[in-house]
Amino acid sequence: MKIYNSATHAKETFQPIEAGKVRMYVCGPTVYDNIHIGNARTFISFDVIRRWLIARGYEVTFAQNLTDVDDKIINRANEQGRTAEEVATEFSNKFIDVMHRANVMDPDVRPRATKEIGPMIGMIKTLIEQGHAYAADNGDVYFAVRSDPSYGEVSGRKVDDLMVGARIAAGEAKRDPLDFALWKAAKPGEPMWNSPWGKGRPGWHTECAAMVHRYLGCPIDIHGGGSDLAFPHHENECAQATCAWHEGFANTWMHTGMLLVDGEKMSKSLGNFFTLEEVLEKHSAAALRLLMLQTHYRSPLDFSWERLEGAENSLTRIAGTVKNLTWAARHAEGDADASLAAKLNAAVDAAKAEFESQMNDDFNTAGALAAYFQLVTEANTYLDQAGSAVDADAALGAAASIAGAFKVLGIELPEPEEELPAGLLGVAAGLCAYTGDDVNEAAERILAARAEARAAKNWDVADAIRDQLRDMGLMIEDTAAGSRIKRA
Ligand code: AMP
Ligand code: ZN
Asked: CB of 183 within 8 A of CB of 122?
């Protein structure tokens, strides 16, 4: 498997530190608001990367933090007259919930910055002892960037170039404009913790380094985030960890491209800013994932409502093919043409091989999906040509392969609607004198008759309906969205 390492600018053959195991860390959100679809692009990309590593048989340990103390959270709390903790708790919960809805797997470890103050203080102490950090008179602690000879290697920057335009802002007590805060002295009204340097709170870059070390151990195999994090965040994480522990930090750095809306940067002022939550209110997670995965994770991703609509239509078409293959296999009649079936089997094998090779080539989901779009076209051709004389094994094999490939990418195909037996027409005729020939309509009438019986506490009638359906191998499923008749 090859992975593009953004620190070396090269596709490298992936070799985990420990055979068969992958330890990966992806920076999580700062929880001061609902996440937007740009954040979602990054989290969904790494979800797919993780899923593919698991599918390849690796035992993956995936850690992701929640930045629950930060200027943005404090500002939001002050605006709303709430505590920073209240804001952070609300948006941590919302983040976890919306990730579930986007079918993003939970991390194995989800450390929160406010619960990791001890390990962060420990790391800062180690850095001071080794001459890589210093406490200023005002209670801030800074990392001395020039003390790290490898500073710049993650993001490909040179320290001298960084000096251009670098300034020490008012209120900062740095010795060198390049230095960054590991610990910020307490300001009134802000969350604060005790430390050897007085009350204060950690700097943003500090948490990830301490968490990687604590929960995964240094070095890790893969460290990821959006490309906007490469500098300074990842550079600074790496500087702290390598200077504190001298074990290396991350073997492979992976960065996702930015999401754009209709070709423009997403921003509230342009009115093209969308939260993940609002997108998932209008569209399925499967369609959003399909749209996103049709672009390679490193390329900029162009989001538009038209493209999302298009992805929704593609999914319906693919799910339709899976359903038709399954239906045709169940209703197969006559002698199947062996050469047509062999051609379909070969197309399945080819799609599978192409999918794997594309995914093994730096997680090229766009290429992997294209292989399966091709298979869907070939499966449709097969169904046209075979008519009712379908080879059941070949058709079911193709259906399973298509559904399976999408599932590996975390794209659940819409459940095909179940076909209900014609016998329901008779039940509806007996119950409510239904004389039509539409089975779905008959099912609706039966459900209405049952609801009416239950409302009138005519339990015998309701039970009789249930028994009649059961004799036909059917059951009634009552859900929040309503009742439906389905195969038992
Ligand atoms: P933040 O909460 O701002 O730290 O962002 C969480 C994650 O989303 C980080 O990995 C960012 O790099 C990523 N991210 C932010 N904006 C975008 C965007 N427009 N496209 C892709 N990823 C983004
Ligand atoms: Zn981080």
From this structure: no
Query: pLDDT (tens digit, 9 = 90+) per residue, 256-275?
Result: 999 999 999 998 888 899 99
* Stretch(es) of the chain classified as CATH 1.20.120: 305-408
Q: Among the residues of 331-458, which ranges form H helices? A: 338-360, 365-386, 392-408, 423-432, 439-455
* Total-model pTM: 0.88
> Which ligand 1 atom sits closest to the C-alpha of 42?
22
Tell me: the pLDDT tens digits for 390-419? Answer: 999 999 999 999 999 999 999 999 876 667
Distance of CA 262 to the CA centre of its chain: 22
Q: Name the burial class of residue 33, with classes exposed (0-12), middle (13-18) and buried (19+) by CB atoms within 10 angstroms of its CB.
A: middle
| CATH number belonging to the domain at 2-131+145-154+205-282, selected among 3.40.50.620, 3.30.1360.10, 3.30.1840.10, 3.30.1300.10 | 3.40.50.620
> Measured between alpha carbons, how far is 369 from 405 in angstroms, rounded to an integer?
8
Angle, vertex CA 246, rays to CA 244 and CA 251, nearest 5: 110
Kind of pairing between the strands at 21-26 and 59-63? parallel
CATH of 305-408, one of 1.20.120, 1.10.3470, 1.10.238, 2.60.40: 1.20.120
CB 223 within 8 A of CB 234: yes
Q: Whose CA is nearest to atom 4 of ligand 1?
A: 29
Question: How far is 477 from 488, CA to CA, in rounded Å?
Answer: 9
- Around ligand 1, the residues with Cβ closer than 6 Å are 27, 29-30, 38-39, 41-42, 225-226, 228-229, 256, 258-259, 266
Interatomic CA distance for residues 62 and 125, integer angstroms: 27
pLDDT, position 418 = 67
Query: Where in the sequence of the chain do the CATH 3.40.50.620 domains occur?
Result: 2-131+145-154+205-282
Q: Report the interhelical angle of 392-408 vs 338-360 (nearest 10°).
A: 10
User: Using omega within 30 degrees of 0 as the cis cutoff, is the peptide bond preceding 219 cis?
Assistant: yes
Nearest CA among 234, 305, 300 for reference residue 264: 300
Instruction: Please list, residue by residue across 208-234, b when 16 or more beta carbons sit within 10 angstroms of its beta carbon and e when fewer do.
Output: bbbbbbbbbebbbbbbbbbbebbebbb
Tens-digit pLDDT profile for residues 18-69: 999 999 999 999 999 999 999 999 999 999 999 999 999 999 999 999 999 9
Choose the residue to mutate in 33, 37, 42, 237 for probing ligand 1, maximizing ligand atoms within 8 Å of C-beta: 42
